[in-house]
Amino acid sequence: xxxxxxxxxxxxxxxxxxxxxxxxxxxxxxxxxxxxxxxxxxxxxxxxxxxxxxxxxxxxxxxxxxxxxxxxxxxxxxxxxxxxxxxxxxxxxxxxxxxxxxxxxxxxxxxxxxxxxxxxxxxxxxxxxxxxxxxxxxxxxxxxxxxxxxxxxxxxxxxxxxxxxxxxxxxxxxxxxxxxxxxxxxxxxxxxxxxxxxxxxxxxxxxxxxxxxxx
Length: 215
Ligand code: 5RP
Description:
Bound molecules: ribulose-5-phosphate
Distance between the termini: 23 Å
Strand content: 25-35%
Largest sheet: 6 strands, mixed
Strand order of the largest sheet: 2-1-3-6-12-13
Order of helices and strands: HEHEHEEEHEEHEEHEEEE
Number of helices: 6
Shape: globular
Number of strands: 13
């Protein structure tokens, strides 16, 4: 299913552009598809070091985001997504760069298999990237919000920070919670992508790829 949505996403790649490319196993399938048509695009902005490495292995030029005016499209996976196109992301720990690339992109195409579509976000622990010295303070604040933060063991982000995975949340208002958590001092960003949701979901199912827009 992940491979099928990666192939379907190719229809949304404009010729001659620099595009945003996400992180994770579904994004990796997409990169492999891009590698087959690498002459069609000018290059890509990567949402993680791992993605940059894979793009380069396929001979695709990787640009710094600061070197481009903006991106036509960003193709990226998700850990959970609702029919409103709100997402939890950051299972791979790349949430901050993913959110920056999403913000700089005109169109966000989410590629996911059917297990990712949920009614309510929160069963997947919400990743929160934190400045290392703020880890304990931020954890206490997250407990006050009803979550159970756990430090992602042995993991350091591409930005040199830590990840707290917050369990036990039932997220009824993702836009509000995204803002509240981002206001905690020491939080770099959190894995709720609700203020800037996906524009299109390509969902891999056992009966083929479904194209879904916000309901
Ligand atoms: C990485 C992410 C990924 O998009 C998310 O974890 C989905 O990964 P996969 O495609 O492997 O299921 O947010 O930080």
